[in-house]
Amino acid sequence: MTNFSLLELNEIIQELRIILDKTAPHAVVEFIVLNPDIASGTYNGTRIKVEQESAIYRGYKTWLELAHILGCRMLTPKVIDEHFILMHYEKLTQDSFHTSDAQKEEKYGSDSIFSAIHKNEEAGFLHYFTQALQNVKIDERKRVLNLGINSGDEFELIQKISKNFVNLELVGIDYCASAIESAQKKFQNENNVTLLQADINNLNALNLGEFDLIVSIGALQSANLEYKKLMMTLVQNQLSRKGAMILAWPNCRWRDGEMLYGARMKNYAFSEMSNLYKDVIFAKKYLQQKKFRVTITGKDYIFVTATSIQKD
Ligand SMILES: C[S@@+](CC[C@H](N)C(=O)[O-])C[C@H]1O[C@@H](n2cnc3c(N)ncnc32)[C@H](O)[C@@H]1O
Asked: Which of 79, 146, 178, 247 has a C-alpha 20 to 30 A away from that of 304?
């Protein structure tokens, strides 16, 4: 069995890349490393004497991160003894909804790979979205609009954390018929939730009135939307004077069951974030001009949260 416990991380990466090049998707690669439980309060790279040798300490975070960087899923390591563990990396397939050639409206439909994703079960999403909802004081809001609601995950979380859910009036929009149908099923017993199959480009024609909170997660970067124009329309026509916004852009991609860090752009073989930063900074500057306090938070999803600072 390959023992990596004496190698530097740079050497381990080089070795693993060579092995993974020859490995089939879903096959497992095994290697021995120092047992991370051997020490606490210890930074990665610290040398620890084990059996007369100077092994290199690394925690699980680095092993998990490295697995994703190399296009693998980290499986449960096997404990060999108190000093060493056997690490297992399973190579991921290329399966991803990002490569889907479905019709544009059904790319995120109930039969798509996207529909198998449960973002509220991803700690890197849930924590920052919950924080954003708390920052806008969701319990003090009344009318909530969600653009690109898909099957309703965002309203599910609002329902769970809000102390005031029945007093909210929630409207969700998506042009994907099958996704809206799934959302309607989920909320069929909630009279305060309206889910509309509609194109965000035709928002004005829907005459929905003003909202105290507008949420849009992972939808504003869609190629069919004129992002800057939409932002202006939302703030000018759909948001109440003391309203708030939570906007989020994915800084990740979904592949073979894993949420991998880093936005992917066409024509780049690696994660590239220029478009993401451009859109996030536009939102921040525009909303600040319109007298909102704006924060940028998150990791796998970047959240722009805006609350009005207009005087009564
Ligand atoms: C990446 S998904 C995100 C869905 C959901 N907010 C989430 O994070 O799980 C983008 C959603 O926006 C919807 N969408 C994209 N363009 C749209 C448009 N012009 N009008 C309505 N919905 C749109 C898609 O159908 C899809 O459900």
From this structure: 178
